[in-house]
Design goal:
Layout (H helix, E strand, L loop, with lengths): L2 H8 L4 E3 L9 E4 L2 E2 L2 E2 L4 H6 L4 E4 L10 E3 L3 H16 L3 E5 L4 H12 L5 E3 L9 H7 L7 E5 L7 H9 L3 E4 L7 H4 L2 H8 L1 H8 L3 E5 L3 H6 L4 E6 L7 E8 L2 E6 L2 E8 L4 H13 L4 H10 L8 E5 L2 E6 L5 H12 L5 E6 L8 H14 L4 E5 L1 H4 L8 E4 L2 H7 L9 E5 L14
Parallel strand pairs: 1-2, 2-5, 5-6, 7-9, 7-10, 8-9, 10-11, 11-12, 12-13, 17-21, 18-19, 18-21, 19-20
Antiparallel strand pairs: 3-4, 13-14, 14-15, 16-17
Keywords: Ligase
Organism: Pseudotamlana agarivorans
Protein name: UDP-N-acetylmuramoyl-tripeptide--D-alanyl-D-alanine ligase
Length: about 425
């Protein structure tokens, strides 16, 4: 079946789905395969649950007039999504980066939705499956699409851009993330910059932070729309005021008080303000959007339990984001305790990067530090204020929870460490 023919059928459906547990009536089900599952075996169940069509790539799963046999389900999903994106012909803003992607995406969506009907990536569905599903969630009502793109290897961003065909792009930063897959920081820069290459090649617009030398140097041949402080000649001037602990900034004559902690979130806010300005969102509406956004999903959440004030930043971690979180945390007033988990996907750099974090922590004014995970457990710790545990269960069995009372508590680690479990101990 041609992609155009499949698309005609898709337009009669209400959604695209890859999981029978979340099937909605009249969905188009895509029977994807993985190392430990085969969606073809669930095609019949998907139809019984209300799916209108099931896309399969095994003959034995092609059992009814509502199953559609294709050569490869994943490739079909991607081609259909790209076709749908062209069919809608709406502006698409794409973003990637080492840190802050999802928060920035949420802020951009909050700002643009003040004026437009937007469709944005849900959560962090930002890979070769998530991006197509995001595109297929856009409808004729959508006026602007916002697509987050993640990657841990070279050529992934390039591939996702070919699918999503963005008209605008923004890279939050270039940090020490996924070093194992990218082969080092230079690989990270090269991989993320694949978005720049696509946008330049197709004569599109790039939003850049004028204070980031890498962004500036990589976009000399591009159509750019810049932001920075008022000392520079930018399209948008926005100034950082303070983060005690929430970021406050000034845009034009408006002071914008966010619910985001840490000065590292200033650039995420500034990018959203800038993109809103480009799309002519009213200034007061931009301010309203930023001030009403509250982080969720373990990303820099502020939680109070009894006398303990918690910064829960347990969604993910890499050396760059860990350093930023610690430097911000040191500025907090009162007794400070940090519970830090291993950082994953660092490859050969893991030992050095974990030791660097230990060294940093020992130099900061943080009263007590608990390191969790094999990588941190194998570092050299010299300070009496710090201790390490090979696993969460070991830490849990030895922790005196009363020691966490009357304190500021930072919880940060990679997703696999699931450090939000600390909340259950309080």
């Amino acid at each position: 079946m041609k992609t155009s023919e499949l698309h005609s059928l898709f337009l009669t459906c209400h959604s695209a789905c890859t999981d029978t547990r979340s099937i909605k009536p009249n969905a188009m089900f895509f029977a994807l395969k993985g190392d430990n599952f085969n969606g073809n075996t669930y095609a019949e169940k998907a139809l019984e649950a209300g799916a209108k069509y099931a896309i399969v790539d095994e003959e034995k799963a092609n059992t009814s007039e509502n199953t559609i046999l294709v050569d490869d389900v994943l490739s079909t999903l991607q081609k259909l999504a790209s076709f749908h994106r062209s069919y809608l012909n709406i502006p698409v803003v794409a973003l990637t980066g080492s840190n802050g992607k999802t928060t920035t995406k949420e802020l951009i969506n909050a700002v643009l939705s003040q004026k437009y009907k937007t469709t944005a990536t849900v959560g962090n569905l930002n890979n070769h499956i998530g991006v197509p599903l995001t595109l297929l969630s856009m409808t004729g009502v959508t006026e602007i699409g916002i697509v987050e793109m993640g990657a841990n290897h070279l050529k992934e961003i390039e591939f996702l851009c070919r699918i999503a065909k963005p008209d605008f792009g923004y890279i939050t930063n270039f940090g020490k993330a996924h070093l194992e897959g990218f082969g080092g920081v230079e690989g990270v820069i090269k991989g993320k910059s694949e978005m720049y290459a696509y946008l330049i090649e197709n004569d599109k617009t790039i939003f850049i932070n004028a204070n980031d030398k890498i962004q500036v140097d990589k976009t000399t041949e591009a159509h750019t729309y810049t932001f920075g402080n008022s000392s520079n000649n930018n399209d948008v001037n926005i100034n950082f005021i303070k983060a005690q602990p929430f970021v406050k900034s000034k845009y034009k004559d408006l002071e914008v008080q966010s619910n985001l902690i840490g000065d590292y979130n200033f650039n995420n806010i500034a990018a959203a303000v800038t993109i809103g300005n480009y799309f002519k969102v009213d200034d007061t509406a931009i301010k309203t959007a930023i001030e009403h956004y509250t982080p969720t999903n373990n990303r820099s959440q502020i939680i109070t339990k009894g006398t303990t004030k918690i910064i829960l930043d347990a969604y993910n971690a890499n050396p760059t984001s860990m350093q930023a979180a610690l430097l911000n945390f040191e500025k907090q007033k009162g007794f400070k305790i940090a519970i830090l988990g291993d950082m994953f996907e660092l490859g050969d750099n893991a030992k050095t990067e974990h030791q660097n974090i230990v060294n940093l922590v020992e130099s900061l004014s943080i009263d007590t530090v608990y390191f969790l995970g094999d990588n941190f457990y194998n570092t050299k710790i010299q300070s009496e204020k710090a201790s390490s545990y090979p696993s969460f269960s070991t830490f849990k069995s030895q922790l005196n929870t009363d020691s966490l009372k009357d304190s500021n508590l930072l919880i940060k680690g990679s997703r696999g460490m699931a450090l939000e479990r600390v909340l259950e101990l309080l």
